[in-house]
Amino acid sequence: MTSRFPQIAVCLAVLASCAEQYAPVSFVAQGDEIIATGTIDDTTLTAFREVTSDNPKIRTLVLQHIEGSLDDDANVVFSRVVHNAGFDTVVPSDGLIASGGTDLFLAGNRRILQPGACVGVHSWAGSGIVATELPQNDPEHDRYISYFEDIGFDDDFYWFTLDAAPADRIYWMNASEANRFGMTTNGSPRLGAAPDCDAR
């Protein structure tokens, strides 16, 4: 129904036109880590199950460049699987997460943002619905609120993302904000600034 698709700089309007421009998430096992890059869609969970089946001992998911989700329902289903399987999530110094990618990061058992990592958030809109125009008790919010409850994360963060930027923009968080919401297990270092993050 609704979607948050942040092709950072870009595909602000019609999802169909964006669909031709995105690369679905791909997973590559390297040592004791699984590296993820791309946009989350309805193929992501299957690809994840394939790589974890081939590498059953790995429990660290490195989010190299996850700029969002084409399908929010698929994203929360996939992210719950990551959480329930006990994966740690890491964004490297040259990495980027935004929108649904940020929601995925929060699914980690241990969560690490390396210095310089880019963390983007924004509101959502779709099918004629704008999240910030809905009352907080509107059931349209439930999929997100339920997700944060299931992964043990305070839903205050959800409301923060709605106010941080409209659906057609990205707000790049700073370390103070990341620490305010307890996004990482051991505190956040300096995060990437807007010019660097926009360029990624």
Shape: globular
Distance between the termini: 28 Å
Stretches where pLDDT is under 50 for at least 5 consecutive residues are: 1-17
Number of strands: 10
For the residues shown, what is the average pLDDT? 90
Radius of gyration: 15 Å
Proportion of helical residues: 25-40%
Strand content: 15-25%
Q: For this entry, what is the oligomeric state of its chains?
A: single chain
| SS class | alpha/beta
If you had to describe this structure to a student in words, what would you say it looks like?
The chain is of the alpha/beta class and 200 residues long. Helices cover 32% and strands 18% of the residues. It has helices spanning 15-19, 44-54, 72-84, 100-105, 142-150, 156-164, 175-180, 194-199, and strands at 26-30, 33-37, 60-66, 88-91, 96-98, 111-113, 118-121, 125-126, 129-130, 171-172. Strands 1, 2, 3, 4, 5, 6, 7 and 10 form an 8-stranded mixed β-sheet that branches. Strand 8 (125-126) and strand 9 form a beta hairpin. The longest helix is centred in the middle third of the chain and has 13 residues, at 72-84. It is globular.
